[in-house]
Structures are given as structure tokens and as C-alpha cells.
């Protein structure tokens, strides 16, 4: 089964369309949350996503916030401003679709899917090998897919040495996975690893091959819509450089 793995679209329809076109035909799509927040196209993204065949989607912290299930005080000023705008603009139908999605870890094809981390699916960031190591006991499958940090990377556990290493896969390289690993496809709509191209991954559930990928999209058109909606300028600027 050829699986498209995406995360952190953040209401950026142009980036999502670029990823879907670049990925080509897939059997399933696994989306690791943060469908909305930051960007100008929350409704368009939800509507595009929900119609994808074979979709599994879980909620991220921004989705939970837009649903009114989280205190906005935990977000920084600009993220909060954007969340309030989204809350006002997302249609009731799209809100109730988001509401139907799970917040907890999900198992697909013997892979664990979460937004943040296995031990804290909505909020914890896995940004280093120490936090990754602490999370391996929190899931039972050979692989766990996470989003949230917007950094395309993988954490490999060496079970003999009991050591975790961090790897940043070269885009397009085919990586044969070996148990156990925590993998992050990166962010579709707001990459933060200084590469402004959309990040995603293709996973083959039969051969256990992971391919991290990047694709260019029209950043300027998204910046224009961010400015037209009077969303924070920072959210437009960061897209051009990927931070
Ligand atoms: Zn995010």
C-alpha cells in the first residue's frame, strides 16, 4: 500500500494542492493534524482533505483550539490572533467535521499515528533524541509517525545499544526502515527547517520504505491571501524562508 503522509497543513491550500499533485496516486492518506491555524484557507483545506479517498486524519493542537477545546492563552500572540480569525471564519459544517476526528493515537497498518508524541498526542514536541528516547516505550508498533515540530526528520532506536540517533533524510532518497523509528514527514503548509518547500512523505506499508519529499509551491499567492485577510504579517513572511 502506497501511503501519502502529511502534517501541519495549517490552512495553506496552495501548498496542499502542490503536495497532492506531486505525490501522484496513493492508496491512503494519513494526516497528522494541524489542518487549520496560521493560514488563510481553513475551509478550502478541510473540504479538499475530507474528500480524499482512504483518508485518516487526527487533530493537532491548532485544530483543538479552533474547536474551542483549548485555552488560547497557551499560544503566542500571533498564533492566537490567527486562531480567533479561523474560529470566526470556519463554517459550522467544517467545524463539525473537525470535531469528528480523533485527538488520541491511532493505529494504521501497524503504524502509530499522533500529532505531537506517543505519550502526549496533542502537545509534546519531539525535537531531540532525549525526548524521542523517552517516547519509545509509549507505543508498541515498529514505527510511529509524528508532526507538530514542522521539521522533516527521523529518530532511529538502536535496540542493542539502547540509543536514539537523529537523521534528516535527503529529499527523494528511498530509506529502508528498520524497527524501531519515529518519523516526521515535515510540514505541508509552514515548513520550519529553512527550506520553504512543502514537506511530506511517501510510505510503503509492504516494503517499509520511507521517502521524504519536498515540493515548491506558489508562496506569494498565499502571502497575498494572508495579507488580504489581515492575518499576522509574520505568518506571511516566514513562508518565504521556511521558519
Ligand atoms: Zn503545527
Using the CA coordinates, give the radius of gyration. Answer: 17 Å
The level-1 CATH class: Alpha Beta
Instruction: Give a list of the ligands.
Output: zinc ion
Q: How much helical structure, as a percent, in the residues?
A: 25-40%
In whole angstroms, how far apart are the ends? 33 Å
Main β sheet profile:
6 strands, mixed
Spatial ordering of strands, largest sheet: 3-2-1-11-12-9
Task: Name some characteristics of this structure.
Purple Acid Phosphatase, chain A, domain 2; 6-stranded mixed β-sheet; 243 residues; alpha/beta; 8 helices; binds zinc ion; 12 strands
Brief rundown of the structure:
With 243 residues, the chain is an alpha/beta fold. The chain has 8 helices and 12 strands.
Amino acid at each position: 500500500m502506497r501511503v501519502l503522509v502529511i502534517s501541519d497543513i495549517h490552512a495553506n491550500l496552495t501548498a496542499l494542492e502542490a503536495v497532492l499533485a506531486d505525490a501522484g496516486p496513493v492508496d491512503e492518506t494519513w494526516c497528522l493534524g494541524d489542518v487549520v491555524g496560521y493560514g488563510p484557507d481553513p475551509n478550502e483545506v478541510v473540504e479538499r482533505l475530507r474528500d480524499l479517498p482512504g483518508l485518516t486524519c487526527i487533530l493537532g493542537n491548532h485544530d483543538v483550539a479552533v474547536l474551542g477545546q483549548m485555552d488560547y492563552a497557551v499560544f503566542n500572540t500571533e498564533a492566537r490572533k490567527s486562531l480567533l480569525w479561523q474560529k470566526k471564519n470556519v463554517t459550522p459544517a467544517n467545524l463539525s467535521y473537525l470535531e469528528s476526528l480523533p485527538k488520541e493515537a491511532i493505529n494504521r497498518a501497524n503504524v502509530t499515528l499522533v500529532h505531537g508524541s506517543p505519550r502526549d498526542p496533542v502537545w509534546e514536541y519531539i525535537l531531540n533524541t532525549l525526548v524521542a528516547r523517552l517516547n519509545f516505550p509509549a507505543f508498541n508498533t515498529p514505527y510511529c509517525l509524528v508532526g507538530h515540530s514542522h521539521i522533516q526528520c527521523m529518530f532511529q532506536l538502536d535496540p542493542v545499544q539502547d540509543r536514539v540517533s537523529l537523521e534528516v533524510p535527503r529529499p527523494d532518497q528511498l530509506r529502508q526502515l528498520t524497527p524501531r523509528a519515529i518519523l516526521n514527514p515535515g510540514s505541508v503548509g509552514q515548513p520550519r527547517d529553512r527550506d520553504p518547500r512543502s514537506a511530506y512523505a511517501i510510505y510503503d506499508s509492504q516494503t517499509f520504505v520511507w521517502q521524504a519529499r519536498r515540493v515548491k509551491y506558489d508562496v506569494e499567492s498565499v502571502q497575498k491571501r494572508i495579507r488580504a485577510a489581515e492575518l499576522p504579517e509574520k505568518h506571511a513572511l516566514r513562508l518565504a524562508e521556511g521558519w
